[in-house]
Amino acid sequence: MAAVDRFILLVRSLRRAERGMALPTVLFAMVASMGLAGAAVVASVDVQQGSKRDGDSKSAIAAADAGANIATMRLARYSKSLATNQCVGESGGTLVAMKAVTTGGQLWCPSVSGTVGRGTYTYWVSPAGAACGDFALCVVSVGKVDGVSRRIETTFNESSLENGGGTTTEGEEEGDTSGGSFEGLIGQDKIDITGSADIRVGVGTNGEVLGHNNSANVCGDIRVGIGKPKPSVKQCSGYGVTNGNVNLPPVTSFMPANIAVANANYRFTTCSSKGLPTGCQTDGFTGKWSKEPFNPVTRTLSLGGQEALTVGGPDYWLCRLDLGAGSELIMRAGSKVRFFFDTPKNCGLSAGTNQIEMNGSSRITSTAYQSTPGNFDMPGFFLLGPGRVYLGGNNGTNELIIYGPESEIELKGNATYKGLIAGKTLLVTGSSTVKSDAGYELPPELRPPPKTGEEEDGEKVVTSRLFTPQTYVECNGVPAAGQAPNANC
To answer: Could you tell me the CA-to-CA distances from 456 to 421, 452, 459, 460, 464 in Å, in that order?
Structure first.
């Protein structure tokens, strides 16, 4: 009984007092705190894992981009090989010409893999010369980082000045037609028209066509870059505006590799007392040879007022061409003449120096140029580097090709130009007329390569096949076994 009485007294005492509650309260608080801390730790781990996945995903897309960029660089570097081969692939660590293989029921070039940073990439390229959907070529690249994969597809069209969106067929008042399936005025990055020019050829740029007044007319189709606004220049009825990018093929893709040592500069070099160099003064010059129209040290060809030089080529290697007022440079009938211009840096010229300059009433013509019966041979002027061209003629008709993918070109004065004028940027400030006679075709070096087995003039045309990026998309997942690389893109 004594034990029972003591227990009853203890219960009564606990009921009236709070002694003994501290420990359970502390225990419950500790349990709650541990629960909250545990939840925070779990949330932190989830965030860290999510951040890692996001980081891996971004790294994987960067690896895929790197693979596509490497493929694009190799397409440009091996453009000459692609003129006669379907693919450029990797064999034993070396890039070699290859044939396409069947992948996922389609023809694709063999895959190429590599490492970039902590990730890897694998890319596939569709065969050159075979369409890939609505485009001329596709590159698909997969990037992987820590088990996370991302896949992209980049599409390309062939970089050709033909069929570039500049088809013009409407007849002009004189009865001629303004060109064929090519663009006669090209500024790869931008075209700026501030004068009152009469443009009767197709116009093309990867940037914008800017017009600053309503006095200039473009009677030809206009191509602007993808995503660029409509041109702010007046366009004749019957012609259209398209969006598309076309990169100009580099001069190195068709320039003779030995042009620096094997050229025709001797033809307009003044003979020494010993009659050297061999073949000197072969070209016809109306001025005095003692004035030396050509300086072989600076590689500058200068014609003064009223002087004329008739050249027979084939290929010249210059730094500068300076045509003074009233001078004329003539291409002899029966000849094929090309002037190649070294880079300003190699020529010791400062930035912004004119490498081609026409002033006053100077002209460039071709004796053989006759729209009837259709002889359109004309001299070509090809600038290798970031030079500048100033065409400031004030009258007469010029028959020429000016081509400088890295050069600034300014077209001024009121002369007429037939042929092609293409540069990195184009500024039209005068009231010139630019047109092309019906039937005119671009020279072989600026045309796309022939299709397999196709011949031109009885001989194979060996040239380059270059491609310009058009679209970029991310694909869903990685293609399953048996699917084409661009499945679900």
So the answer is: 25, 12, 6, 6, 15
User: What would the pLDDT profile of 172-192 be if each residue is shown by its tens digit?
Assistant: 333 333 434 578 999 999 999
Per-residue model confidence as pLDDT tens digits over 397-438: 999 999 999 999 999 989 999 999 999 999 998 889 999 888
Sequence-distant (6+) residues with CB within 8 A of 18 are: none
Q: What's the Cα-to-Cα distance from 426 to each of 192, 238, 405, rounded to whole Å?
A: 6, 24, 11
How far, in Å, are 76, 100, 259, 459 from residue 464 at the CA level?
9, 19, 18, 16
Query: Are 157 and 129 spatial neighbours (Cβ–Cβ below 8 Å)?
Result: no
In angstroms, how far is CA 290 from the centroid of its own chain? 44
383 DSSP β-pair partners: 341
* Alpha carbons 72 and 291: distance in angstroms, whole number: 50
What six digits make up the tokens of 317? 């290697």
C-alpha–C-alpha distance, residues 8 and 299, integer Å: 122
Element housing 50 (H / E): helix 22-77
Among residues 307, 286, 429, 435, the alpha carbon closest in space to that of 363 is found at 307
Model pTM score: 0.73
| Alpha carbon distance 219, 200 (integer Å) | 5
Q: How confident is the model at residue 131, as a pLDDT?
A: 86
- The rounded distance, in Å, linking the Cα atoms of 159 and 156 is 9
List beta partners, residue 153.
140, 473
The answer to whether residues 174 and 196 touch, using CB atoms and an 8 Å cutoff, is no
From CA 447, how far away is CA 301, in angstroms rounded? 29
Confidence of residue 32 (pLDDT cuts 50, 70, 90): low
Q: Residue 123 in 3-state DSSP?
A: strand
Pairing of strands 137-145, 148-158: antiparallel
DSSP states of 372-429 as a string?
TTTB----EEEE-SS-EEEE---SSEEEEEEEEEEEEEEE-SS-EEEEEEEEEEEEE-
Select from 336, 435, 347 the least CA-distant residue to 388.
Answer: 347
329-380: per-residue pLDDT in tens? 999 998 999 999 999 999 999 888 999 999 989 999 999 888 777 788 999 9
Question: In angstroms, rounded to a whole number, what is the distance separating the alpha carbons of residues 364 and 415?
Answer: 11
Alpha-carbon separation of residue 146 from 60, 70, 111, 481 (angstroms):
9, 22, 21, 21
Cis peptide leading into residue 314 (ω within 30°): yes
